[in-house]
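worker-03 picked up job from queue 'complexes'. Input manifest follows; six sequence lines, order preserved.
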Amino acid sequence: MTTDVKAIHKEVADMFGQVPNWMRELPESALSGFWTTMRDLQLAETALPNKTKELIGIAVAGATRCRYCALFHTEAARLFGATDAEIAEAAAISGHTMYASTFLNAVQTDYVEFRRETIEMVGYVRQQQAQQKRGKQREAAAH
Amino acid sequence: MTTDVKAIHKEVADMFGQVPNWMRELPESALSGFWTTMRDLQLAETALPNKTKELIGIAVAGATRCRYCALFHTEAARLFGATDAEIAEAAAISGHTMYASTFLNAVQTDYVEFRRETIEMVGYVRQQQAQQKRGKQREAAAH
Amino acid sequence: MTTDVKAIHKEVADMFGQVPNWMRELPESALSGFWTTMRDLQLAETALPNKTKELIGIAVAGATRCRYCALFHTEAARLFGATDAEIAEAAAISGHTMYASTFLNAVQTDYVEFRRETIEMVGYVRQQQAQQKRGKQREAAAH
Amino acid sequence: MTTDVKAIHKEVADMFGQVPNWMRELPESALSGFWTTMRDLQLAETALPNKTKELIGIAVAGATRCRYCALFHTEAARLFGATDAEIAEAAAISGHTMYASTFLNAVQTDYVEFRRETIEMVGYVRQQQAQQKRGKQREAAAH
Amino acid sequence: MTTDVKAIHKEVADMFGQVPNWMRELPESALSGFWTTMRDLQLAETALPNKTKELIGIAVAGATRCRYCALFHTEAARLFGATDAEIAEAAAISGHTMYASTFLNAVQTDYVEFRRETIEMVGYVRQQQAQQKRGKQREAAAH
Amino acid sequence: MTTDVKAIHKEVADMFGQVPNWMRELPESALSGFWTTMRDLQLAETALPNKTKELIGIAVAGATRCRYCALFHTEAARLFGATDAEIAEAAAISGHTMYASTFLNAVQTDYVEFRRETIEMVGYVRQQQAQQKRGKQREAAAH
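worker-03 finished. Artifact:
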């Protein structure tokens, strides 16, 4: 075991109270990169809240059928405050995404048309939201 | 090109009027097994009707995002008589299956319980169907 | 539990004799849409026979490794009359589709060429079928 | 087109300014369930913020390679206020989840051991957090 | 059981000492093609060493979550001389590939640009390698 | 851009002559871990030859349908000396693995039985190999 591996194992043990066996099975050539990602992207404070990152982990685990990840990210999501309702919803949103994507790929939806329609639809919603906002502002100003 | 490869290419050309380029890219060690499967399982008359087999191909292509297969199995399904409505339904059933499976895997549904419930539910439906059948028979006998 | 949830649970229990636990775990925001799909698309009489729809479910479950769905759709397929031979064939067709799609994606098959070849091949088969049909008609007319 | 389909298409057009072509391709047996899910789960205000739901959609699209969904959920995420940094992070978290899950499944990590270790690790972090909190409270009380 | 099935089962039993049950479940229409592929592509001496072919099997099993294949290809890889370090590395390389691909698909990387950059990058490395080689040759000639 | 990001971009540019755009899109929290893995696991000299690692990348790209990875790993495999025949074989082996795994998961093969059979089969092959070796040694000793 190189000095590098020992140092990483110490960091892991400081954070989690142990070095899980699966992490010991990572090849030495992979350990530093994997741990750096886990520490700096998954567990650190970054652009997304930790709860959101773990809910994403649950959703991805469901869509790609990994029981290890479903367990790990559910426990971590709860640690960061996720409720049962939020976990169930992340799972259902992932399911709904898979339904739509499976259908679109199976019927060979024209991508260029899909792209145009999507951009038009989102543009329409933005416009509606702006109009509603202006309407409220006018109303407020009238009082 | 070995004699074997020539013989297989001849069989392919006899059936399709050509040997598509992608089939020429298969390694020689893979060609015989692949063609045997395509000929005897996919294209021959077997337990399942050809239309059903191609609809399965469309559903699998959608769930696993293969545009080659979505195209190929859709053309083949139409050759064997599939309508647009049947193709769209195969795609939607595949999508619905992916929704349910993604959700069940994400929320770590207990498999033993799921198994028990599923067997009970199917047993219940069978019982209902049998009762309805007996009801109809009694009715018919009463006349 | 809202009135809506109660009404849906009643419909489920009327059909299956129970509300399985996994369905109770669906978020309320997802329940109505999921059940509507299951009732109207999967279990109702639609364009495709129920047996075919469940065989598609088995094929998709295999290709995407969902043990819940493999079990559920196998039990449902049997309920709708599928034989062991039909189930095994749906599984093998799904496997063959995955072989072809994996190979085509790995070797980066040119999609435009693949499309042209596929349409030519299917056109050739149609032509052959039409010729055979005309041949038989002439033969029949000659008698 | 049944009355039901017309009513749903009207709802869609009211929200998005149009009925996209891919939605017209959904079989009638699937339309009501699909739209109910999209309206009540994906687009309504539910347990999870809309931005989070769309980021989950992006993550799942990346892990399962759906270019339609990657586009749709990215546009929707931006509509609900997601920044480029948040989108990139959802994509990277999905990638990291896939790395870990691929490794764990490939080396056949013992699930029972993995489960025990994960629960111990999360328990350890909770304990550390509680100690830090008590430490801060004592410090605050001492002043 | 047809003569063909008996002959194949004999070949399997000669090689493995038994016909595993899962192979008996293959439909007759699929058996010959499947066994031909397994014998001529997977187990024969071909372009790639057997150890490499089994390591590929482990990597694919991890990325697509098949516990049967993870087991089978690990046992076969060991039979052909793979070490624990090589197996762990195949698993990690598969994981790293999945990370990169998930990210690239999630952020909708422009494929044309990605292609141009990749070809430029590989061209650059080739040039560097050629320069180093020429440098060494000049050095060797100078002595 | 932090000092860290600049240093990593310099390393990348030194190796590849440029920093590809997709790498610039990685969030800062992910960059160091990702690059460390790419440098130390994928591109360094490790337990597996670089050609083997890139062939694994091609196989995984095919099985999980990533056109970015299929391109990148094919170009890299060629850089490390892979022939067209080796690339085609990696693609076909990946396809064959997906066929078998799809079938086994679809028919719900009993895992415990599968495991026992696999270990017996591999044990049988080992025994045969040992007997052949002893036979050759006896023959050699007899001369």
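worker-03 released lock.
Chain A has a mean pLDDT of 96.
The interface with chain B takes residues 58-59, 61-63, 65-67, 70-71, 74, 87-88, 90-92, 94-96, 98-108 of chain A (CB under 8 Å).
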